[in-house]
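Ticket #4471: structure export looks truncated?
Reporter: QA, pipeline team
Priority: medium

Steps to reproduce: submit the single chain below to the structure queue and open the exported record.
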Amino acid sequence: MDHLDPSDPATVTEPADPVGTIARRTLLGVFGASTLGAIGAAVLGMTGHGASAAAANIPPVHDPRLHPLPASAAATSVPTARPGGPADHDSVHEAATKAFPAKTQGQGLQELRSTVVSGVREFDLVCGKVKWEVTPGQLVDAYAYNGQIPGPIMRVTEGERVRVRVKNDLDDSTAVHWHGQRVKNEVDGVPFITQPPIKPGQTYTYDFTAGPFGSHMYHSHHNATAQVGGGMLGPLLVTPKDPRVDPAYDKDELFIFNDALGGLTINGKGFPATAPYTAKLGQRIRFRFMNEGQLIHPAHLHGLTLEVFARDGYPLPQPFRCDTLNVAPGERWDAIVLADAPGVWAFHCHILSHAEGSSGMFGMVTALIVSA
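Actual output as written to the record:
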C-alpha cells in the first residue's frame, strides 16, 4: 500500500492486484536482458512459467527434531518422504520455487471501511468461520474477521475516538483485545475480567480513544490459542497526530507471522503462495513486523538493510540497523528498508525449519523484489 497522507486514514487504499499480474511482471523485468546464466534462469523460474500444476502442491517437510511446532501447527503439517539424493532435492526445490507467487483463494489485510459519526470513527467487525487456502489446494478450517486472514486493516489517528461493533457469527464465544492500546479497563477485551464474553449471535460495542500511535494489533482474547492461532487477528495502525515523528517512507507494508493456521505463514499464506513485496529502486519501504504466533520468528532480509526505528509502536531512543530482526510473540517492530539494490531478495524466518526442507522452500518465505 502506498503511503499517501498519514494524517487522513480515509485516503489510504489498497491496490487492485497487489500480487498477481504486478508481481509476475516485476519478476520478469527485475534484471532484464542483461542478466545472464543461473541468476537469470532463477529469476525467470520464479515467475512460475514452466512450472507444473503439481509443483504448487508440494507439501513441506518439517523435522520436529530441529524445532518443534505447537500441537495445533504440527497437526496440520503434511510429512513427505525424503528425496533419494541431491538431484531429487534440486528438482523438487526448483518446482516449488517456480510456483512462486502461487495463486490461492482469499486475501487478508484489506482496508476496513469506516464512517465518522458525530466525530467518532466507526468500524464493523464480523467474527466467523471460513475455509482458508493457505497454499494451493491446502484448505483449512479457520477463524476470521470479515472473512479475511489476517483480518482487515483498521487505521485511525492518535487521539481519535473509535467505536467498533463486533458481531459474533461463530458457534462459540469470543472477545476482542486492542493489543498495545492504552484503553480504559472496561474495553480491554478480556472475558470475566473486563467484560462478559460475546456469545454466538450477539453484537458487542467497544468505544475508546486511539493511543499511543504506532503499529498495534487486535485479536481474540477468548479461547485465544484456537481463535488467534486459527486466524482471528489483525493490524490496528494508529497514525501520529504529527506525522513528522515517523521517518519518511514511500510504501507501507505489513509482515505478520503466525505459526498455527495451516502451519507456518506470513500474512495468512505459506510459500509458494506468499505475496512478494515490490519496490522501485530508491524507494523507502516501511515494514511493520508483527508476531501473532506462539514461537519466535527472526525475520531475515537478504541483500538489503533494516533500519529499525520503533518497537511495540514506541519510537526507539536510538534506531539501529540489522538484517535479521527477532520478533517475539506479541511484539511489533517497525523498520525502513531503502531499496538500493535491484533483484529478487529472499525474505524469510531464519529458523530454518520454518522456511526450507527436503521439499525446498515452504512456510515463512517470501521476497522483496526491487526493480529499476
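Status: closed, not a bug. The export was complete when the record was re-opened. Leaving a note from the reviewer for reference: Residues 105-241 form a domain with the Immunoglobulin-like fold (CATH 2.60.40.420).
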